[in-house]
Specification:
10 strands; two-stranded antiparallel sheet; 2 domains; 328 residues; disordered N terminus; globular; 8-stranded mixed sheet; Spore Coat Polysaccharide Biosynthesis Protein SpsA, Chain A
Length: 328
């Protein structure tokens, strides 16, 4: 008589982390997943690495997951984080897919809180993202903060029902596949494709991850290349326009800068109308809360930000031309 073999049940959730270099941060990310307050048999962790060397793979394979938890590292050519996430989803078995980035650390209750937020009709759940503790604020520090449902649906902390993910076609490749900090936009596109299909979205602050804080150079602060993709977002998903200022400006600062630029084209800055066009921008930037500049010195803040805002205006203009959708 042939013995029967009972197939091992699939995990409740598959966690996918795309990785590119930065093994020290990746170790912190994976370690945080191996200490979740869930039975190890209920989840699996898949790292998809596109680094030019095997340091990430070697590190991941040296870790000890909890009993029953599957931890694996796949390797592929660099195409940006989107295709890496797609490979992780195809390899995984869970009906729910949890995405976290390699520069994040999950709280012990992250997975449980994310799973608890799903209900009938819910296709995606977004969690809370805060900077890691103990790093002081600085204009030259970069991190991520998500404290309510964001129309960008950043994949630093998000869960998808597999059915909804696969029907939407997954993530698209990045415009800069070899960059340490890709242009992005693939997370926005996937989420809105899922929502267009009729799935509901939810936000749960209990599903918390902490995002690393990076020190950036003045050049990196001046040139925010990710703005280039924003006109493509509003072209492909016009419903996102309502989240931008007056629908056609990235934010209030860019709208005020547009008035200043328009005024400067018609009149010299030292003329009454030229200066009047610059006043809203000056008022806005000087009026923003700041720790280091108080009183009259806050006027200097406008001139500090002016080169950055002008470059951002140029990037948004280039993106508007490239994707034939106006967003300045």
């Amino acid at each position: 008589m042939a013995s029967s073999v009972t197939a091992e049940p699939p995990p409740c959730v598959t966690v996918v982390i795309p990785a590119y270099r930065r093994p020290e941060l990746l170790r912190l990310a994976v370690d945080s997943l191996l200490t979740q307050d869930m039975d190890g048999r209920t989840y699996e962790v898949i790292v998809v690495d596109s680094s030019p060397d095997d340091r990430n793979e070697t590190m991941v394979r040296s870790l000890n997951p909890p009993p029953g938890c599957s931890l694996s590292c796949l390797r592929k050519a660099p195409e940006g984080p989107g295709p890496s996430r797609n490979l992780g989803v195809r390899t995984g078995r869970g009906p729910i897919i949890a995405f976290m980035d390699s520069d994040c650390q999950a709280d012990p209750g992250w997975l449980r809180a994310g799973l608890d937020a799903f209900a009938d009709g819910v296709g995606l759940v977004q969690g809370k993202v805060l900077p890691v503790d103990g790093v002081p604020h600085s204009v030259f520090n970069r991190t991520l903060r998500v404290e309510s449902e964001s129309f960008l649906y950043e994949t630093a902390n998000i869960f998808y029902r597999r059915e909804a993910f696969e029907a939407a076609g997954g993530f698209v490749a990045d415009l800069t596949p070899n960059a340490t900090r890709p242009v992005g936009g693939e997370d926005v596109a996937l989420a809105w494709t899922v929502k267009r299909s009729g799935w509901q979205s939810r936000f749960t602050p209990q599903a918390l991850v902490r995002h690393a804080v990076f020190r950036i150079t003045p050049a990196e602060w001046l040139v925010e290349k990710r703005l280039f993709i924003c006109p493509r977002i509003v072209r492909d998903f016009p419903e996102t326009r309502r989240f931008f200022f007056a629908r056609y400006f990235f934010d209030r600062a860019q709208a005020a800068l547009f008035l200043a630029v328009a005024g400067g084209l018609g009149w010299p800055l030292w003329s009454f109308w030229g200066f009047a066009g610059f006043l809203p921008y000056l008022w806005l930037r000087a009026g923003e809360q700041t720790v280091s500049m108080r009183g009259a010195r806050r006027l200097l803040r406008a001139f500090f930000y002016l080169p950055r805002d002008l470059i951002s205006f140029g990037i948004l203009t280039a993106g508007s031309v490239r994707f034939r959708a106006l967003l300045l």
